[in-house]
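QUALITY CONTROL LOG
STEP: pairwise intake check
CHECKER ROLE: data steward
CRITERIA: each record must contain a sequence immediately followed by its structure tokens, with no blank fields

ENTRY 1 OF 2
RESULT FIELD BELOW
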Amino acid sequence: MSKSNTDMRGWADVIRTIPKPLRIFALIVLALHSVPFILAPKASGLNLTLLIAGVLLLLFTLIVVAALIVMRSQTPQIGMDGKALVQPDMKYDVFVSSPMAALADGKQYKKDREKVLSVMKALRTECKFNSCVYAGRNIESMEKFEQPDDSLRDDFRNLRESKYFILLYPEKLASSVLLEAGWALAFGKPSVYFVPKREVLPFLLRQAGHTFNNIKIYECEKVDDILKIISQKREKLFQTAVDVP
């Protein structure tokens, strides 16, 4: 292996250790560090001075921008109470949100619950998710629903501690799933919405797929359509443009 190839591999190993937001700056600096050595023999006097000053100015600018990015990434998020938000450990792979109390009756709830459980099974099998959160997982009937305050507290904590979010919204309903979708959006969770038509979503959520690159909206009339998409996408179900190296 030639020395140049060895050097390039060494630089590649170093760049991999740098956080993703700063890698582009590392590549630019790597490209610039050899510029003076290439052009200096061809310049002299004022041209050489301008060349060196230009390279130094560009490097200084890159250092300042990189420093600002690092400072911003380390700045704690502030909650509505003015206190810093503590970033939670991600205990779960995905939070699955589907209407429960908003459904017409126990029969419809049972049918919808079976659909959600089949989706969760596909997520475990196809996406290799070991931990999926769904509020109705252990609730077989509407009579076993928890008190609203307990459900709200558990939902908020579980969603915040989940890496991904899935919305199963079969029809236009005044359901708590819309609140959960709003939480996921505020937390910046990569999210997938499965709906029969985009129009059933509130206007702002309907536009979320166009505005944010971590949200995908699929129109699916039947559960088989949802399972087909999960089977096709598998581990890439939540992959976005910013995740692609």
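ENTRY 2 OF 2
RESULT FIELD BELOW
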Amino acid sequence: MEEKRGQKFWKLNFALRFLNISLVFVTLLAVLSFYALGRLMIDPQNSLSWRVNLIILQLGFTGVIFSFIIGMFLLLHRTLGAIPRLERTIDKIISGEYSLRLSVRNKDVIKPLVDKINQLIELLEKKTKA
């Protein structure tokens, strides 16, 4: 039991560190992009520093967009990732295997719904046995 708690703590600790590092990275990219944008407005257009600042600005905005896409992927994975597996299990339950139960990760958004569906399956199982 203590080992499971340690694993959960490690996963949570890793997720928080990853989130903190990601937020710091996005903040630095945004600050660097705004600095480069300010320099672009001041420097003459044909100078080398103007071109370097333009490249920094493009890389900064690309990094912010890339970070946003990764964040959205992780969010959608948490909310929609289990749905195909749940659908297959529900199909088996409809075919008569009432001993099956749905399972998702504890932190998934649909966990309360899955718990209620499992209660419903349990009632169906009791009624078919009676």
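INTAKE CHECK: passed for both entries
DESCRIPTIVE NOTE, ENTRY 2: Residues 2-42 form the longest helix (41 residues).
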